[in-house]
Design a protein that fits this description.
Helix content is about 5%, strand content about 40%. It has 1 helix and 13 strands, in the order βαββββββββββββ. It has one helix at about 30-40; strands at about 5, 55, 60-65, 70-80, 85-90, 95, 95-105, 105-110, 120-125, 130-140, 155-165, 165, 190-195.
């Protein structure tokens, strides 16, 4: 079985003291909305594959608070048992991945990264390949001037990782870009997110 680690492409940082502009500050609001919609995909109530193709390294993840920022890193793997290659639409390595939180009414979008608005060649994960990645979460609190941000002041709870733009086929002349992976193939196991 092939194991490939995702190369580190970029990391967003955000200043909250107004001292300097950051990459987050320079993105027009309409592109932020577009990125959130692309990352959100479909918030369905179906369960992941058993065992999930997306699997976090830990069942408990702790958020670190620093001023108005919360951050953590969530290592995870994707084991491609789909029967063919998987294509991740991306822009310079950044792709539609988000966190959902389980609430009383079901699952809801809780966090998604700010994404650039371009289309790079797809990231291809071959059949039977194990792809290793880390989801770096940096978020502001409600009421802060930081994007992205969590929608509640204490985001502790049960979460899962979801890939938004993961496909089992790819058409470079899209949209449509191809056939999206089934929901169960692009959602992780659940894990607990703790905040201090």
């Amino acid at each position: 079985r092939a194991v490939r680690r995702r190369p580190r492409v970029f990391r967003w940082t955000a200043a909250t003291d107004g001292s300097s502009a950051t990459a987050v500050d320079c993105i027009p609001p309409h592109l932020l909305v577009l990125g959130a919609l692309l990352a959100a995909g479909c918030l369905a109530a179906t369960e992941p594959a058993d065992p999930p193709l997306l699997q976090t390294d830990s069942l408990v993840v702790e958020l670190v608070r620093e001023g108005d920022l919360l951050s953590t890193s969530i290592p995870y793997t994707f084991t491609n048992r789909t029967g063919g290659p998987v294509y991740l639409l991306n822009c310079r390595g950044g792709f539609g991945v988000h966190l959902e939180r389980e609430d009383v009414g079901g699952w809801r979008l809780a966090w998604s990264p700010v994404l650039l608005a371009c289309l790079s060649p797809p990231i291809v994960i071959d059949e039977a390949e194990v792809w290793v990645d880390t989801l770096d979460v940096v978020a502001g609190l409600p009421g802060s001037n930081v994007r992205p941000r969590f929608d509640i002041a204490d985001p502790a709870g049960t979460y899962r990782i979801v890939w938004g733009a993961a496909y089992s086929s790819y058409r470079p002349d899209g949209p449509p870009w191809g056939r999206q992976l089934r929901w169960a193939e692009r959602v992780s196991n659940t894990f607990q997110l703790l905040s201090n």
